[in-house]
Structures are given as structure tokens and as C-alpha cells.
């Protein structure tokens, strides 16, 4: 039984370099074992410099498939699109050879895309590494405590790989990987910065309520090794 492994860094710069090296090592090891590797990343502002570092890691990137933990239901060139973020910051340099599986499809509503997208996600193997961020409300991926779809997203009995989510406290409808699909991974990494988010995570771990703090379902589970990458 593993528990949350704390990796604290003196600066965001050191964190980003160490995380890029760690993820590259995991992907390289997966490629050596199975000839391919899969990586799930999150959007938001925290991972930008980490993406830049990871994009130049020496890897056979053509053997890596990358998808997102969640996506905002906006056009791929929209300022808030996680796909756009990845195309500009991660799928560049050496990493542009990776295969990217987008979560945004042409349907106008995310729920119309759930079934087809779930099939695409089900066709991907167990992920090698899943990197998750966290919001100040304790959401991770787009599993928002305010959303009426949260229960479905956290349901470990569900076979759904993804779920359409409508947060009431954040912009845009979303598509999120569900908790059971996120846990089909060999390694989970929670990547957060700043004292405020650390306090939120500490509170979530104390209160032990995943409906109030969805990050708890990731940070406290014991099935998949999970690390916290944190700096001020
Ligand atoms: C998204 C995310 C989300 C993010 C947190 C943290 O698309 O919004 O994947 O879960 O990781 O909201 O966002 P920041 O890094 O911007 O604080």
C-alpha cells in the first residue's frame, strides 16, 4: 500500500526541471518495456514551464501518446482551450512527434461527445503517467465539487472513461476523465504550487471528503503510487 509521496522544491524552476526529468524517465522506461508510452497532462496555468522543459527531453516521442485529464468545451484555438495550451507549450520541440488525442470534438455540447470519446479513451492502454493540477476549491481534472455531475465522475463502479461536466463556479462546460479512468494508471502526480493550494490539499487530507474536495480521491487512494510535486 503506497501513500502520498511528498516532493517539495525550493523553487518552481527546480520543480519544473525535476518533474520533466521524472516524467521523461517514466516514459523512457515504458518504451523500453513495451515499445510505447502514454501520458495524461492537465491544463491551467501551473504546468506551462514544466511543459517547456518536458518538450525538449530526449525521448523517442513518436512512441508517446498524450491526452488531457480534462478540456474546456471551447474551440481548439480559443484562449481557454487546453488543447491550444498543449500545442503551444508541450507539442513543440522534440515532443511535436508525439501523438496527441484531443478531448474536444465538433459537437456543440460535451454530453453529445461522451460516448464516442469514451470509446477512444477506452482504446488507450493503462496510462504510464497522469499529471493532475488542483484548483483552490479542491477540484482536479474537471471533477468540480460544485458540479451536479461530480457523483458520476467519482463513481468507481462506473465504466465510463469520461464525463461532461458543467461547473457553476468556473467558465465553460468541460469534458473530464472520470476517477476510475484516471486511476487506470501506473503513476499519478499532483502538481501544485503556492502556500494557498498546499493548505487546501492539507485540509482535504484532514477532512477526508471527496465530494467536498475531489482531489482527496486522488491523493488518498492507495491503488496507484501518487506523488505530490510542490513548491512555493
Ligand atoms: C483545467 C484543469 C484544472 C487545473 C486546475 C488548476 O483545465 O482547468 O485541468 O484541473 O489543473 O484548475 O489550474 P491552475 O494551474 O490554473 O491553477
Task: Give a topology summary.
Elements: E1 5-9, H1 12-34, E2 37-41, H2 48-55, E3 64-68, E4 70-72, H3 82-89, E5 99-101, H4 110-122, E6 129-132, H5 150-154, E7 162-165, E8 174-177, H6 179-182, E9 188-193, H7 195-207, H8 215-219, E10 226-231
Parallel strand pairs: 1-10, 2-3, 2-6, 3-5, 6-9, 9-10
Antiparallel strand pairs: 4-8, 7-8
Helix pairs in contact: 1-2
Task: Output mean pLDDT.
Answer: 97
Instruction: Indicate the low-confidence ranges by residue numbers.
Output: none
Bound molecules: 6-phosphogluconic acid
Number-wise, the strands total 10
Tell me the overall shape: globular
Characterize the largest beta sheet: strand count, sense, and whether it forms a barrel: 7 strands, parallel
Secondary structure: helix percent: 25-40%
Q: What fraction of residues sit in β-strands? A: 15-25%
State the end-to-end distance: 29 Å
Radius of gyration: 16 Å
Strand order of the largest sheet: 1-10-9-6-2-3-5
* Computed structural class: alpha/beta
Total helical elements: 8
The arrangement of helices and strands along the chain is EHEHEEHEHEHEEHEHHE
List keywords for this structure.
3-stranded antiparallel sheet; binds 6-phosphogluconic acid; 7-stranded parallel sheet; single chain; 232 residues; alpha/beta
